[in-house]
Every structure is written in C-alpha cells, then in structure tokens.
TrEMBL record:
This is Putative transposase. The lineage of its organism: Bacteria, Pseudomonadati, Pseudomonadota, Alphaproteobacteria, Rhodobacterales. Residues 2-81 form the DDE domain. It comes from the Bacteria. It comes from Cribrihabitans marinus.
Length: 82
C-alpha cells in the first residue's frame, strides 16, 4: 500500500487504495497491513475490519514476497543496457 498511498498516508488515501484493489480483484479473505491506524479505519468503513491482520512482522513477509520479482527485473535491466 505504501507505493499507492499519498505522502500523508491518511484514511482517505487508504480507503482509495482498498476500494481500487477490491474493484480490480475480488474481496480478499485476509488483509495483512502494518499497524497504521488509517488502514484499520479504512477497512472498518468498507466493512472488512474483521479480516485484518496487523502484526509486527506479518507485513514484512508480504513485502518480501515481491523481492524475487524485483531481483529478476534488475537482472533483466542490466542485460538490456549492454
């Protein structure tokens, strides 16, 4: 969510991101977020607060899932520059 949220990362920005995600995909079984209060407030407004997991290390696991793609992406960029 960090990449989509505004600089303020307030409830309005979080609500916009969650609504866009639900529109493009389906309603998730579980929302893993950091402990930012704006995420919880936005999920309560959508009606999905009961599906929120906010833990100290849970969000780190979600963010590191993106890492292998980023590594491959960087390797491909180096190949193209040659």
């Amino acid at each position: 969510m960090e990449s989509f949220a505004t600089k303020t990362r307030d409830k309005k920005a979080a609500l916009k991101v969650f609504k866009k995600a639900v529109r493009q995909h389906r309603q998730p079984e579980l929302n893993v977020t950091d402990r930012l209060r704006s995420c919880g407030a936005a999920l309560r407004e959508i009606g999905a607060a009961h599906r929120q997991e906010a833990g100290r290390w849970m969000n780190d696991r979600v963010e590191t899932l993106h890492l292998p793609f980023r590594r491959r992406e960087r390797a491909m960029l180096r190949f193209r520059r040659m």
